[in-house]
Structure formats: structure tokens, C-alpha cells
């Protein structure tokens, strides 16, 4: 991920998108006034999904900062009667998010999640006014303290947060009419909003969750889904073992050498996320091409969540190996879950092993 | 698959199980590596590492850490509901690797990412199984 060297001046594309966001949010201001926190935070979460829908397209064009999209509208909320306002601005987070959005979708969730953790709300530092009042001073300290505790818990992207923030960080929280405005309840409310955001995202992930209402019911669905996925993995691994007696993986070897296991069968690779197999694969006769490398070289050590961007390079590498190759379709999402160690790449071995069947 | 298993002798059935376990392990390692930045991935990697080093210790103590703190219900009516929710939270914690040490927000986040990773993995393995099935049947025809 390229570090944002100058987060204080967003790129022209960011500005225009920010302005678009502003306009969009201005239109929805009144909705924000009347809706619960739940709804107001709903749209940012949509941007977490790779599928771009109307609301998220606005935000995702920029870097997805879930709270930022709300914040752009905050300064115009002067008509709101409650005015407790705490502004927190984390430029570096925005800068990093800018860089990360240009990476793959898989990193967006992480970044967004981190942004959520790092701050209650994020303001665009230079392009928006900050309505500061005297109460801010008291709350600033408290919120900073909260933020730092959250920071300490956040160990995923700590290294990226170091860039430059000469200005102190603020958290932007809007208290609604009739709600308590002390820092405790504000923090509590923000926390609850965040939790419900995430709950909503989980709802979208888990099929059939929309029909259930209530926290316990939704949690039930989520738990069942995770369990079923885990069971599917187990079942499929048993199936793979049964279907093909020669398929085996020496995991120790794999881990020790940080390479693909050499005694694993060389398998044709196709990233077929939705079981859309290219029928030509099935007619692939290994005997005719003993010299070809059947597998696809995959980088095993690729902890970079944005490494999906490097996939196309691998495709070209595999293409050079043979034209009867399995066309590798890389999706933009993190598809390589099991693939890295399921496929063997060893041209010399392919020569001797041939096709494992 | 059922046919294969039923026709197989008891000896090879165990073999299949063993191979299946190895494949599953490989899949899990792949899963863990696929998103290195996530807590669950790191916890999963730690667990797999431990399993590898000491294979006889198959029971990994996942519940050794204290459960995450939940809000104490203040109203009697709400108690039962919150109890239910808390029970499910704890169950989710156990499911997601490394979940015991996470608080609610983090847990949800990690769960979402974990679900996505699992979905991808299932897709890949299913495709692989289909592919192998297809190839095997093709080979059978040729031979």
C-alpha cells in the first residue's frame, strides 16, 4: 500500500468526490435528523461490499471511510438544535484509506474496520469547518484517551498510522436532540452505532438473515452459518481425499520450506469461484503434455492483504507456460484461501510426475 | 463420494480420513495466510502451528481466556434476552479463531472477514472437487 505522503491536500479526484458526498449528504440531512443512528450509519456500511450500490458508489469512489461520508455533512447541520460536537480528525487515516481503496476490495473491509475502530468519526481536515465549542476541551481529553485505548487494541494497521498528524485528533460526534451529551453516553452511543453497523454488515453476508429479527435470532443465524461453512470445508476436504487417492499435502514440508509441497499432485488450477468450470479443462489429457507445468505458481508468502493486485502478474506467468493452460480467472476478492497450498508448482516435478491421476 | 467410501476397505477408509485431515489442515493454513492482517487469521495460524509442533495435543484450549465482558442487564425483564444474546456471543467467540480475546465490535468485524474467507475457501475446494471428479471420469472413459 502506498503511503499517502501528503494527506493534508487531497487529490483533485478526492475533492470532487468529497464535494459530491457533501451534496449527497446535504440532501439527506433531514433524514439524518429524524432517523436513528442505525439508519444514518447504514449507508457507509454498504460501501464495505465489493458490490457497488448507489450509496456506496459515492463513498467508495473516495476511500472508504465510513464515518467520513457522514462528517462531510456535519458542518451544515447547524440547524440541529443539539450542538455538542467533538471533532476529531485523523488525516493519516484518511490518507491511508485513500491508498488502500486503490488496492483490492479485500483490504477495504480491513481498512474500514480499522477506521471504525480508530475513530468515532473522521472529518476531512481542511475542507470542512469545525464547530468547536468550549465543552470540547473537556471531552477532547476523554475521547483522546478512548482513542488511544482503541489504538492499543488495534494491532493490525498500527504501522500505517504513524505518518503525520501534527494536529491533535478529534472525534466528531453529533448528539441528537433530547439525548444526553456527556462524554460517557456519547461514547456509548457511538459504540452502539458501530456495533449495529457491523451487525448490519453481517446480516448482509449471511444469507437469510434479513428474515430474522432481534439480536439473538440474527446471532443464531450467523453462528449456524459459520458452523455450516466450517463443516463444508471439512466435508470437502474429506471428499477431496476420497475422490483422488493421490492428492495429498505434506503440510510440514509446505510450512518448512515455505513452498508448495513437492509431493502434492500437480493439479490444474482454475479459480472457479462459482463452479463455472471451463469444460476444456476436463478434456485435458496429461499424457500429451508431460513437459508442461500444470500448476500455477502462487506466491505462498503473501501476507499483504492487498496482494490480489499481484494476481494478474501471475496469470501472465502461467500463460507463458503453455497455451492449453487452465485459464486462471482471478476474481477481485480474496479467492486464494485454499488455493495457495492446494496447487503444486514445480516444473521439474511435473515432468516426472505427470498428471496425478 | 458415498460410493467410494462404502466400497473402500476399512484400511483405506482410515487412509482417506488421514488424507482428509491433511487436506483440511492445508486448507486451513491457506485460509490463515490469505488474510494475514486479521486477528482470526493470526489466531488460526498460532493454533495450527501448535498442532503441528505437538500433534498429540489435539485438544487446543480455546476457552482458556476469560469470556468477553458483556453489559450487565439492569432490568429484570431484559435479563433473559440479554442472557440469550450473551450466550450466542460466547458461542460465536468460540467459533471464530481467536475470538475469546475480542470484544463485541472486534468480534463482529472478525466474524465478517472470517465468513468471507470461509466462503471463498469453500468455493475453491468445491471447484477443485468438481474438477477432480470431472477429470477422473474423463480418464476412466479414455482408459
TrEMBL record, chain A:
One of its GO terms (molecular function) is DNA-binding transcription factor activity. Residues 179-229 form the BHLH domain. The keyword Glycoprotein does not apply. The keyword Metal-binding does not apply. It holds the Pfam family HLH. GO terms for cellular component: nucleus. Residues 97-108 have a biased composition (Polar residues). Signal peptide: none annotated. Keywords: Nucleus, Transcription, Transcription regulation. Residues 93-186 are annotated as: Disordered. Residues 126-172 have a biased composition (Basic and acidic residues). It is found in: Nucleus. Belongs to the bHLH protein family. This is Transcription factor bHLH63.
From TrEMBL, chain B:
Keywords: Nucleus, Transcription, Transcription regulation. One of its GO terms (molecular function) is transcription cis-regulatory region binding. Residues 10-51 form the IBH1-like N-terminal domain. It is found in: Nucleus. One of its GO terms (cellular component) is nucleus. SUPFAM superfamilies: HLH, helix-loop-helix DNA-binding domain (SSF47459). InterPro entries: bHLH_AtIBH1-like (IPR044549), HLH_DNA-bd_sf (IPR036638), IBH1-like (IPR044660), IBH1_N (IPR059002). The keyword Nucleus applies. Transmembrane segments: none annotated. Pfam families: IBH1_N. Its main location: nucleus. GO terms for biological process: regulation of DNA-templated transcription. Belongs to the bHLH protein family. This is Transcription factor IBH1.
Amino acid at each position: 500500500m502506498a503511503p499517502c505522503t501528503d494527506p493534508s491536500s487531497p487529490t483533485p479526484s478526492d475533492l470532487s468526490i468529497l464535494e459530491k458526498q457533501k451534496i449527497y449528504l446535504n440532501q439527506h440531512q433531514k433524514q439524518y435528523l429524524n432517523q436513528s443512528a442505525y439508519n444514518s450509519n447504514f449507508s457507509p456500511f454498504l460501501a464495505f461490499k465489493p458490490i457497488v450500490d448507489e450509496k456506496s458508489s459515492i463513498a467508495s469512489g473516495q476511500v472508504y471511510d465510513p464515518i467520513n461520508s457522514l462528517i462531510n455533512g456535519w458542518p451544515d447541520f447547524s440547524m440541529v438544535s443539539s450542538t455538542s460536537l467533538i471533532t476529531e480528525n485523523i488525516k493519516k487515516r484518511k490518507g491511508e484509506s485513500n491508498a488502500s481503496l486503490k488496492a483490492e476490495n479485500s483490504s477495504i473491509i480491513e481498512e474500514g474496520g480499522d477506521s471504525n475502530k480508530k475513530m468515532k468519526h473522521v472529518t476531512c481536515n481542511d475542507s470542512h469547518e469545525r464547530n468547536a465549542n468550549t465543552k470540547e476541551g473537556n471531552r477532547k481529553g476523554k475521547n483522546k484517551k478512548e482513542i488511544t485505548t482503541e489504538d492499543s487494541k488495534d494491532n493490525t494497521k498500527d504501522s500505517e498510522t504513524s505518518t503525520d498528524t501534527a494536529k491533535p485528533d478529534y472525534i466528531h460526534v453529533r448528539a441528537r436532540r433530547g439525548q444526553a451529551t456527556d462524554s460517557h453516553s456519547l461514547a456509548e452511543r457511538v459504540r452502539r452505532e458501530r456495533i449495529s453497523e457491523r451487525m448490519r454488515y453481517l446480516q448482509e453476508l449471511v444469507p437469510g438473515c434479513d428474515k430474522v429479527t432481534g439480536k439473538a435470532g440474527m446471532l443464531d443465524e450467523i453462528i449456524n452459518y459459520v458452523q455450516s461453512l466450517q463443516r463444508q470445508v471439512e466435508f470437502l476436504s474429506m471428499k477431496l481425499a476420497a475422490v483422488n487417492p493421490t492428492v495429498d499435502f505434506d503440510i510440514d514440508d509446505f510450512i518448512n520450506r515455505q513452498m508448495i509441497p513437492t509431493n502434492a499432485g500437480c493439479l490444474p488450477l482454475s479459480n472457479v469461484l462459482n463452479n463455472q468450470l471451463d469444460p476444456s479443462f476436463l478434456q485435458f489429457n496429461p499424457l500429451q503434455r508431460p513437459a508442461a507445468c500444470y500448476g500455477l505458481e502462487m506466491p505462498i508468502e503473501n501476507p499483504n492483504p492487498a496482494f490480489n493486485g499481484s494476481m494478474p502478474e501471475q496469470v501472465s506467468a502461467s500463460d507463458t507456460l503453455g497455451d492449453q493452460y487452465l485459464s486462471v480467472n482471478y476474481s477481485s476478492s480474496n479467492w486464494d484461501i485454499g488455493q495457495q497450498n492446494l496447487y503444486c508448482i514445480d516444473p521439474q516435478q511435473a515432468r516426472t510426475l505427470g498428471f496425478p491421476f | 463420494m458415498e460410493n467410494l467410501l462404502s466400497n473402500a476397505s476399512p484400511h483405506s477408509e482410515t487412509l482417506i480420513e488421514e488424507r482428509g485431515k491433511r487436506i483440511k489442515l492445508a486448507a486451513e493454513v491457506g485460509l490463515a495466510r490469505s488474510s494475514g492482517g486479521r486477528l482470526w487469521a493470526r489466531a488460526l495460524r498460532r493454533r495450527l502451528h501448535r498442532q503441528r509442533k505437538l500433534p498429540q495435543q489435539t485438544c487446543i484450549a480455546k476457552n482458556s481466556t476469560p469470556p468477553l465482558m458483556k453489559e450487565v442487564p439492569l432490568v429484570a425483564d431484559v435479563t433473559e434476552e440479554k442472557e440469550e444474546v450473551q450466550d450466542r456471543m460466547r458461542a460465536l467467540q468460540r467459533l471464530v479463531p481467536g475470538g475469546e480475546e475480542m470484544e463485541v465490535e472486534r468480534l463482529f468485524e472478525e466474524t465478517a472477514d472470517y465468513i468471507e474467507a470461509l466462503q471463498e475457501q469453500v468455493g475453491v475446494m468445491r471447484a477443485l472437487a468438481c474438477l477432480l471428479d470431472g477429470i477422473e471420469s474423463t480418464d476412466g472413459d479414455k482408459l
